[in-house]
Design goal:
- The chain is of the alpha+beta class and 318 residues long.
- The chain folds into 2 domains: 9-96; 101-307, no CATH class.
- 44% of the residues lie in helices and 23% in strands.
- The chain has helices at 9-48, 52-96, 110-115, 190-193, 218-223, 231-237, 240-252, 289-302, 304-307, and strands at residues 101-103, 125-136, 139-156, 159-176, 184-189, 224-228, 258-262, 265-271.
- It has an 8-stranded antiparallel beta sheet with strand order 1-2-3-4-8-7-5-6.
- A hairpin with a 2-residue loop joins strand 2 and strand 3 (139-156).
- Helix 2 (52-96) crosses helix 8 (289-302).
- The longest helix is centred in the N-terminal third of the chain and has 45 residues, at 52-96.
- It comes from Pedobacter petrophilus.
């Protein structure tokens, strides 16, 4: 893992300044949590001794105080988290490429996420943040964190129980493709397709088994299932070189990726198991492990343009 702090004096100075604020926020949060813990402990001990009224009364005082402390520090915590994304992540992005920008409050709309046709479920709850935008040579791209969920309800003896299930949690990458496409090409990992047999039933375009495309790359066909509304065009999109690059990209991702090629865009979904670009509260900013993980993730995403050779305009799109 590359250490982006090494030799980056501006970023080191920014982290040193923000470390002072982080310690203040962490200290207040710890204080609030400790008082709440003390109050709960007093209640438990009092209840074990049979002192119900006095246990609740004695425990309630530190719990209320702890909650007040956490409420008071909430705005300072949010300000610290915003500053981390703008100043630390923003500065680190410039270290990778001066054209990169981050907008922590923006993301990829739920309409665009659905239009990409990477997942099948109707979205009931959707969150997106940390939009990173850039341009490498001729290719514009952007990506953001996305958390999409659907809701299930079932009746129990205690009433209706609602559960929220992930459709997708991770990063969606969108790049300008090198041709205006008239059809749709979708590449799904086989393990995911096997678990959602009716995946295509609710999409914008009507897919069926007759739209499955067998390609001349056995390793690619073992890893992915490819669907397309225009077989010839899909084969032009998924050239032998492109398939090899997608296999390489998939092998270096944390989990299997999904792709779609629609109109003049390429969409890639990278499932992730953690929330990236978040400011640490109880870990020192001077420890580069967390930051290096985030920045290496950004570097990996930016390298997609090069890895997939998106700047080669083989069909004349400029």
């Amino acid at each position: 893992m590359q250490d982006f702090l090494a030799g980056n004096v501006a970023l080191q100075n920014t982290l040193a300044t923000m470390e002072v604020e982080r310690r203040k926020v962490a200290a207040e949060q710890k204080r609030g949590i400790i008082y709440i813990g003390i109050g709960i402990g007093v209640c438990i001990v009092g209840l074990l001794l049979g002192l119900l009224f006095w246990a609740v009364l004695a425990g309630l005082i530190p719990v209320i105080y702890g909650i007040i402390v956490l409420v008071k520090i909430r705005e300072a915590t949010k300000a610290y988290e915003r500053a981390y994304k703008q100043n630390v992540i923003g500065e680190a992005l410039k270290f990778i490429d001066p054209n990169l920008t981050i907008n922590p409050l923006d993301g990829i709309s739920s309409d665009e996420f659905s239009y990409a046709q990477l997942f099948n479920k109707q979205i009931d709850r959707y969150k997106t943040e940390d939009l990173v935008s850039g341009k490498i040579d001729k290719t514009s791209f952007y990506f953001a964190e996305v958390h999409a969920e659907y809701k299930t309800e079932r009746e129990t003896k205690d009433g209706t129980k609602t559960s929220w299930i992930d459709i997708f949690r991770g990063i969606v990458f969108v790049a300008d493709f090198n041709k205006h496409l008239s059809g749709v090409t979708i590449v799904k990992p086989k393990d995911l397709v096997n678990t959602v047999g009716s995946w295509f039933s609710k999409n914008i375009f009507s897919f069926s088994d007759q739209h499955v495309i067998q390609l001349e790359n056995p390793a690619f066909d073992r890893t992915f299932v490819t669907y397309g509304t225009h077989q010839i065009e899909s084969r032009y999109v998924l050239t032998p070189a492109m398939m090899e690059r997608i296999l390489y990209l998939n092998a270096n991702a944390l989990q299997s990726i999904s792709l779609s090629f629609i109109e003049s865009k390429m969409y890639i979904a990278f499932p992730l198991d953690r929330n990236y670009f978040e400011a640490p509260i109880f870990e020192s900013l001077l420890n580069p492990v967390s930051l290096n993980t985030d920045i290496n993730t950004i570097r990996f995403l930016c390298d997609i343009v090069k890895e997939l050779d998106l700047n080669t305009r083989i069909w004349g799109k400029e």
